[in-house]
Amino acid sequence: MKPTRRTFIKGIAAGSALLATESIARPFSIIPNLARQSPNDKIRIATIGMGIQGHYDTKAALRSTPGTELVAVADLYDGRLKQAREVFGKNLFASRDYREVLARPDVDAVLIVTSDHWHDHITKDALKAGKHVYCEKPMVHRIDEGLSVIDAWKKSGKTMQVGSQRISSASFKEAKRLLEAGEIGEINYIESNNDRFNAIGAWNYSIPPDASPSTVDFDRFLGDAPKVPFDAKRFFRWRNYRDYGTGVAGDLFVHLITGAHFVTSSLGPERIFSSGGLSYWKDGRDVPDVLVSVLEYPKTSTHANFQMVLRVNFANAGSITNNTRIIGTEGQIEFTENNLLLTKRKLPIAPGYGNYDSFFTFPEEVQKEFVKQYDVQYPPDTRKAAPVKEVRFEAPKEDDAHANHFKDFFENIQKGSVGTIEDPVFGFRAAAPVLACNESYFDKKVVYWDPVAMKKKKK
Ligand SMILES: NC(=O)c1ccc[n+]([C@@H]2O[C@H](COP(=O)([O-])OP(=O)(O)OC[C@H]3O[C@@H](n4cnc5c(N)ncnc54)[C@H](O)[C@@H]3O)[C@@H](O)[C@H]2O)c1
């Protein structure tokens, strides 16, 4: 959505924990969260957007921290307001207008779980209203919305968490630990996929039979997107349209890149290129169902330069293995939210000779001389590779990444800390490159990004 207020900050939002590792010495100030709550205080939440993820988020929030209470919800489909009361109690305050929720003094924190094109607006309104914010991924719908959200957060003194909860899983934490311990040497490549092969996975969610202009506040849904007549598909399957969603990159790459940034402590890529197309789901959507992007990461104080390849294929009729593979000079870490496999594999010092090699093409005399020299240069101990070692990690059964992510949010509220494991600086550093993946695909160009300043650049 177009920002209503262009308040781009000149400096860098240095509130992220990640920035502690940066070499930029830039002064910054974040207003401390003075209205801290004690761990015994009940945190009262409201959910704005009571659709599919609104339910998952609300339940994860409630189970994460004892004493958390849901007091209000907002949604634009009356059926969801009614259903929220059926599930969470008939005393729940429920409104079509999220501003009524923000105006309530009994709401401490809001969960923003709407279609992507509302994230920035509601986040800024909520922070201004003095609420702590948990905003779903991607943090913004467009790159030019990011810095103003960060600015609003910094000015608010409120805690903010972005919702790509997988980084709060035991498996992702283990991947980070192993990488930082040097288990795979210098990183050179990451690949991460999120493929699907079913209609619901391809975002064709069920549409309720009572959907109509009287049960759905369609005009409010459109916000500042182009005005179009009521269309239930646009409302209930908003991901299929760029006006409200962010395509497979914003929806799914964002989880992949968030995981990669968390594990590598990277600030982001410098060059982004995508290729893709609409292969199977030719149902009126204006976003691709197959997308491959290459993101080039520069060397930093925490990692070597590396390439990252992200892929989504919604028409993957083959086998689907959605995982992340981080490859280094001495092995690889392959992981999902639930498990991880570390493979340590190091080359011997001696290069070897023979087989499919030029050695046999030399005349006999030269071969003899070659072997003589080789034996001097590479004594036996340089010829053996260390045995390949595999180490498996299974996340404990009780590991609950979603609840952990909310726990981090609530604990920071209670501590009076504005930052979280996925604060807006981290959130934008993940969102912007994936939005750039879309830009590259639609405009058929390479996008250049400054991951430190969080701005697009010419080259
Ligand atoms: N973290 C995750 O793993 C994860 C998973 C799924 C979805 N999500 C994110 O959650 C968000 C919602 O996705 P969903 O699948 O629940 O969509 P959904 O369509 O099921 O629900 C979205 C709801 O938002 C409501 N809404 C839209 N604009 C609103 C406004 N201005 N005021 C009040 N309500 C409004 C709609 O009425 C709708 O019910 C998206 O940003 C998506 O990217 C995150």
Automatic annotation (TrEMBL):
Transmembrane segments: none annotated. GO terms for molecular function: nucleotide binding. Residues 43-163 form the Gfo/Idh/MocA-like oxidoreductase N-terminal domain. Residues 235-334 form the GFO/IDH/MocA-like oxidoreductase domain. SUPFAM superfamilies: Glyceraldehyde-3-phosphate dehydrogenase-like, C-terminal domain (SSF55347), NAD(P)-binding Rossmann-fold domains (SSF51735). This is Putative dehydrogenase.
